[in-house]
Amino acid sequence: MAWPFLKVLLVAVSFLGCLYPLVDFSFSGETRDQKPNFVIILADDMGWGDLGANWAETKDTANLDKMAAEGMRFVDFHAAASTCSPSRAALLTGRLGLRNGVPRNFAVTSVGGLPLNETTLAEVLQRAGYVTGLIGKWHLGHHGSYHPNFRGFDYYFGIPYSHDMGCTDTPGYNHPPCPACPRGGRPSRNLEKGCYSDVALPLYENLNIVEQPVNLSGLAQKYAEKATQFIQRASASGRPFLLYVGLAHMHVPLSRNLLSAEAGGRRPYSAALREMDSLVGQIKDKVDLTSKNNTFLWFTGDNGPWAQKCELAGSLGPFTGSWQTRQGGSSAKQTTWEGGHRVPALAYWPNRIPINVTSAALLSVLDIFPTVVALAGASLPRGRRFDGLDASEVLFGGAQAGHRLHGNFESRAVSPQQWGGRRGRSPSDCPPGAVQGLLRHRWGQSLRWQRRARVAPRAPPHL
């Protein structure tokens, strides 16, 4: 009898999901009690050197550079993994993939997602009285209970996975170039290696598909509109809010509505970077207009650039990994070399975070979870080990000490001081026999030390 009951329950919940757009912002007008709002913007496949404030050669990020001048810029900030799903799972749980059960990307055909026994940041803040929204890419499971609306987000508008994982009518710039979706009775496309299936990319609003296939040329503007609407309505409701924006930029395919920019002498990647910068600028402007002094805006990336995409990939800045590239390899996305996980990061909160400050503290996407939970006055989920730290002392107290060690599966992010402080030098300049063995050893030591220090004798460690 249990299974029929569960099916009826799922149908009922799905029906209620259809009503989400009607009730998302129908709040009772409770007082905010000065709890801060949070806007977390996560770029996709953006290189450390794509931020002009990081790398003087980049001239396409005027809004982000302005945010850096008005807030804090982190130069030693790292993703928790060098691919999409594990990095996003780490951001939303504060735990590495070895603990949260997401060590690799989910596919279009995946039936699972972020394990249901994991508690997301949205769920923690929802219980603390926050209204929560997700605009953009999810990539942590798209069936049943793995959907964002069942993982703590009151409102969701976006795509379930990367926008190269389904066909569209307006395929953008990619290597290899992928054809459009088949029309009518036409046979399936002759797919090149690297192109995904004929399943058209869907765009969701809560549980409903509102467009399929997605028109990529208009997706950035849709995200900007939905994000600013959410901020406006949530601010007017009197309740604190969390808005998580998973950008499609700078992942391929890059939209072909940038042809005019290319014709003006700007390559497609540069034009796409400007489009992303404009989108972020619109979100920041809305924050400044509605709740400037009570909103913490955090911008960062999920991993480094996808070097195999050649001129359609971003800049590693100085972290090119000269040893690795001399062997014909890459030091970027999908690797544990520094270029794969060192990402741009900015923090902005007027009158709270000091302006025009550059921090060399070793921090990580993993730190967003415990920092936001602490600032919200909420409690961390019990019975869990967290790999991040509360970065409040760095953000507000001027501290320069972050992590002593940062684990990225089997990699270690090393501070510039430990490597001589020379610009352009990174662990990837040394042969893997020397470095990777050290990384495995030191990371293993760190985990063993945590077990000894935090777990009672003979008690099995919590994962």
Class by SSE composition: alpha/beta
Helical stretch tally: 14
Radius of gyration: 22 Å
Low-confidence stretches: 1-8, 10-17, 19-24, 26-32, 409-463
The SSE string, one letter per element, is HHEHEEHHHEEEEHEHHEHHEEEHHEEH
Terminal CA distance reads: 33 Å
Structure description:
This protein has 463 residues and is an alpha/beta fold. It contains 14 helices and 14 strands. The protein has helices at 2-18, 20-23, 62-70, 84-93, 97-100, 121-127, 219-237, 259-263, 268-291, 322-326, 338-341, 368-375, 392-397, 432-454, and strands spanning 37-43, 72-74, 77-78, 131-136, 155-158, 203-205, 208-211, 241-246, 295-301, 345-348, 357-359, 363-364, 407-408, 411-412. Helix 7 packs parallel to helix 9 (268-291). It is globular.
List keywords for this structure.
disordered C terminus; 14 helices; disordered N terminus; 14 strands; alpha/beta; ten-stranded mixed beta sheet; 463 residues
What's the structural blueprint in terms of helices and strands?
Elements (H helix, E strand, L loop, with lengths): L1 H17 L1 H4 L13 E7 L18 H9 L1 E3 L2 E2 L5 H10 L3 H4 L20 H7 L3 E6 L18 E4 L44 E3 L2 E4 L7 H19 L3 E6 L12 H5 L4 H24 L3 E7 L20 H5 L11 H4 L3 E4 L8 E3 L3 E2 L3 H8 L16 H6 L9 E2 L2 E2 L19 H23 L9
